[in-house]
Write a structure and sequence with these properties.
about 240 residues; alpha/beta; Rossmann fold; 9 helices; globular
Length: about 240
């Protein structure tokens, strides 16, 4: 379980997060949704300490940090070892082929043997029908293929929680569908995921829980069905803007 309590992120010109408290359950998929600039990505980045809030607390399983106190390198390392993040941009290692992209972290960071790391990589590629990509370099892949490899690279680190920041926003609809199918398969396997997404169809079909962030505040946090059938006027307006 990941939990944040009274999270505040204050910038000189705005408050990106305003007293945010929410829980992300293990073995479930949580979709973070909301208008542009509402604080969705800031919240996600706080979960792996890429963003340091001004105040509040973060708890991941049995580890808790207070953002009003300085964090030791060991605390940061222990928390980050529980998560892996996939960003909007694919950001693969361009000088490495797909197989080496999937083995670099396990070998260099986790000190796995090359043989074990490669076996794990092949297993992941086979699991998602991507074996034919093993020897290709990023420039030889489509945008959708690159993002799917980025997801597998994160999974290769065997994180407790997978964090994804609008992983399909830079893709056209066809390539977006390829990536969303991978995430749907992961959700079916009870992977613990937190996904910032603009795709309401994906959120409605796949997420167990929705967190709606509006103006840095939590406007809703609960079951997906409750969000999409909410009588709240702000939520209805937001969802209405998603269609035309």
């Amino acid at each position: 379980m990941i939990s944040v309590k009274n999270l505040v992120k204050q910038y000189p010109d705005k408050k990106a997060l305003d007293d945010v408290s929410v829980t992300f359950k293990a073995e479930e998929t949580t979709a973070i949704v909301g208008p542009s600039g509402s604080g969705k990505s800031t919240l996600l980045w706080a979960l792996n300490l890429l963003e340091h809030p001004t105040s509040g607390q973060l708890q991941i399983d049995d580890l808790t940090v207070d953002f009003e106190k300085s964090l030791s390198n060991q605390e940061v390392l222990e928390l980050r070892q529980k998560t892996a993040t996939v960003f909007q941009e694919k950001a693969l290692f361009t000088h490495l082929n797909v197989l080496h992209n999937l083995t670099e972290g396990p070998v260099k960071v986790q000190k796995k043997s090359k043989q074990d790391a490669e076996q794990q990589a092949f297993d992941l590629l086979k699991q998602f029908d991507m074996e034919e990509l093993a020897d290709r370099y990023p420039y030889q892949l489509s945008g959708g293929q690159q993002q799917r490899v980025a997801i597998l690279r994160a999974l290769a680190m065997q994180p407790k929680y997978l964090l994804l920041d609008e992983p399909t926003s830079a893709l056209d609809p066809e390539l977006e569908a390829q990536v969303l199918r991978v995430l749907k398969d992961l959700a079916k396997k009870d992977t613990s995921m937190v996904v910032v997404t603009h795709n309401m169809a994906f959120a409605e079909q796949v997420a167990d829980q929705v967190v709606f962030i509006d103006g840095g505040k939590v406007g809703y946090a609960g079951e997906t069905e409750g969000f999409f059938h909410s009588d709240n006027e702000r939520i209805k307006k937001f969802l209405g803007a998603m269609s035309f």
